[in-house]
Amino acid sequence: MAETIGEWNDGFLMELQSAGYTAETIVLAELTPQIQIAWADGAVSRRERDVIVESAAHRRVPPQSLASLQLARWMERRPSEDFFRISREVIGRMLRRLPAHLQPNVRRSLLREFGDVAAASGGLLGWRNVSTEEQQVIDSIASELDPGDPPRAESNHTRPSAPAVSAGKRIRG
Prior knowledge:
globular; two-stranded antiparallel sheet; disordered C terminus; 3% strand
């Protein structure tokens, strides 16, 4: 697990293990904000699940692997707030280890994925594609990942009538 995330602090590694991470499942840490966003309105929809599974495949998480099975469990039963907190800490530590010139691009990529999950469930005729609860979670996670930069979550899967998502406000299109 330490090699995968580049973290050698024994106390932090023990905290990850206490949260349920293993050497096989730590690769999922980057996906946990997407899971938290999907759960924001009380349930993970089929479309949200599909977007998250697509993100896992993009990260080369093999189907039927221990990591894939754990991901499915997290989408069936909401993990605890403490689990989401430690997962965001992993992401933050991994981001800080990147060269400074790469960090903004990786953050933007993550935020785009957050927007994809939030927009996945859609709304009635394109209205309220992103629920208030999902937007609050996006804003919170985004500010945690980069407190000095105004966060923006943009979706790759936008429809012409879909609102753009940005932290702190909704833009109706």
